[in-house]
Structure formats: C-alpha cells, structure tokens
Write the structure tokens for this entry.
Amino acid sequence: LRYAEELNQRYGTNDYSPLLMVAEHHSQEQVYEIYRAADICMVTSLHDGMNLVAKEFVAARDDEQGVLLLSTFAGASRELLEALIVNPYDTAMTSEALLQALTMTPDEQRERMRPMREMVRNNNVYRWAGSMLLDAARLRKRGDLGRVTGNGERPSNNNVISMFERTRKAVS
C-alpha cells in the first residue's frame, strides 16, 4: 500500500491517481465492475497454479477492451497467450510491457481480448471436470487408478460413470 501511495504522489495529480489499490473484500458484482473499469489488469505472481483473477478479468471484458499483463509464472499464462507475458523479476521487461499496455490501441486490445475470451468461454469448469473424469476412466481401464488415489481402493464404477454422464450432459 505504501508503494501505491508513493507512486500516486509522484505521478498523480489532485484529480487523478494512476494506481488504485483495492485491499478489502468486495462482492462479486463489485469485482466485476472493477474489472470493467480497469484499463489494465496486472497479475505478476512469482508462483501460482491457475490464477483466476486473470480469467475473471477476461470474462468480465465483454466490451473486448482492456489489457492483461500476466506473469510467466502464473498458470494462466499457458492459456492466455494474447496477454502481455512478463517475467516479474525483470523490472525493465515489466516496465516496457506496462508502457505497451498503456499505449495499446483499442483495435489491438480487441484483437488480443477476443481469443482470450474464447479460451475462457471454452475451457470452463464443465470441460475441466469432464477431462478429469475421462482421465480417471483411462487410468481405471489401464488398472492405474488405485495407484493414483493412493489408498489402493477403486471408486465404484457406477459413481464414475454417473459423474461422467452428468458432466457430459452439462457440457453439451
């Protein structure tokens, strides 16, 4: 928070703060409005699995505007390829990407946002669950499921099949 205040004092004016730090809980609707109002979303994780902030920002931008600046160490960087991907340890690279984001034309923003929105739309929780169930079914068929679950017990065939059927119906 201190750094945000320093940057705002240095680069802001009485009427403008270049950096807005949000360090409190907000409702889902409020977060959506924040994503919609943002010109840039910076996710500069040093390590994470699948950062949902990046995907939520993209999902909220049905106006196809805004720029996603994403750490190469964020799991989402492997899927959101049109984001500006940076190594957050490289301050020069991050600064250059931030300048690029700040000066990006609306047309380029749209060209980048469209495929990211398509990826988020297509790779949803139903597809993920379906792929997990298909992987489990393949492991079961090979006889490897007990090894993966760690306890040597196999789940009931009926449970796996019914979960797969429910997921398949939800996706289609």
In short: The chain has a mean pLDDT of 86.
